[in-house]
């Protein structure tokens, strides 16, 4: 019996050259999987103020600090008293400082922007983070929730159960998930779509309007791409821009300011 088993093992044994190449292929595949996992788990450094000056220039007296309230967040405050609180959910795997430019620009209009820092930079890990921030900073202010890409979808999910504490919502290259609807609410909503976005399918963004209030406004940012909502560099699978990043930011900022101007003051 032992001899028979040994013979079978001998027949099944692979030639050394084949074993070498199989081992090499397996090692490469394993290394690739580990590298992907590491890029998600080990996030790049968070540097407040890095590449954050808005295209229109820095308003005087704006401060941007890293703070903690039920989790870390970037707190961008105007020089004077803020009349609006903007809670911004970053895109998936995007460091929150990529959206600091927007908060610094809006500070000139009396807007305080808080950007939560999520585990793994995924808003899905902390959909309700806005609650503590609104409780801490929101009294007497307009409360706006906003988000980019996955962050926008999670902002919409938060808004679904908290419309009574919100005065508006801004989605950037984003739309509510299929099981999330705010259609029967009166929440003012601005949906921004980059014309050459190839990450957030424009058809899906437009279809998302069917799950938003009838008054929801869709604004297309000409020549822009998905990654131009933040400052984190080119994104795999995105389209090609036909405008400069600064030009797109000015369009985004103008659309946001116009939307905020339509909301009643607190």
UniProtKB/TrEMBL annotation:
Tagged with keyword Disulfide bond: no
Matching InterPro entries: AB_hydrolase_5 (IPR029059), AB_hydrolase_fold (IPR029058)
Signal peptide position in this chain? Answer: none
Q: Domain Alpha/beta hydrolase fold-5 spans what residues? A: 86-246
Per UniProt, which keywords does this protein have?
Hydrolase
Q: A Gene Ontology molecular-function term?
A: hydrolase activity
A Pfam match is: Abhydrolase_5
Record-given protein name: Alpha/beta hydrolase
**To which species is this protein native?**
Deinococcus arenicola
From which lineage does this chain's organism come? Answer: Bacteria, Thermotogati, Deinococcota, Deinococci, Deinococcales
């Amino acid at each position: 019996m032992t001899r028979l088993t040994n013979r079978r093992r001998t027949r099944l044994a692979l030639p050394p050259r084949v074993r070498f190449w199989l081992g090499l292929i397996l090692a490469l595949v394993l290394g690739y999987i580990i590298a992907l996992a590491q890029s998600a788990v080990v996030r790049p450094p968070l540097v407040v103020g890095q590449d954050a000056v808005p295209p229109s220039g820095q308003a005087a007296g704006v401060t941007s600090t890293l703070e903690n309230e039920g989790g870390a967040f970037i707190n961008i405050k105007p020089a004077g008293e803020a009349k609006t609180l903007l809670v911004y959910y970053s895109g998936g795997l995007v460091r929150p400082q990529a959206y600091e430019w927007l908060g610094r620009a809006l500070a000139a209009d009396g807007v305080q922007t808080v950007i939560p820092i999520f585990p793994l930079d995924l808003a899905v890990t902390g959909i309700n983070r806005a609650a503590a921030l609104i409780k801490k900073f929101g009294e007497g202010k307009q409360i706006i929730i906003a988000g980019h890409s996955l962050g926008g979808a999670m902002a919409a999910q938060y808004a679904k159960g908290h419309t009574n504490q919100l005065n508006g919502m801004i989605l950037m290259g984003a739309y509510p998930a299929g099981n999330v609807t705010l259609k029967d609410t009166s929440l003012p909503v601005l949906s921004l779509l980059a014309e050459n976005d190839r990450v957030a399918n424009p058809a899906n963004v437009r279809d998302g309007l069917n799950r938003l209030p009838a008054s929801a406004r869709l604004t297309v940012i000409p020549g822009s791409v998905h990654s131009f909502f933040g400052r984190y560099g080119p994104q795999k699978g995105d389209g090609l821009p036909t405008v400069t990043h600064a030009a797109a930011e000015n369009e985004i900022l103008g659309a946001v300011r116009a939307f905020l101007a339509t909301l009643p003051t607190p």
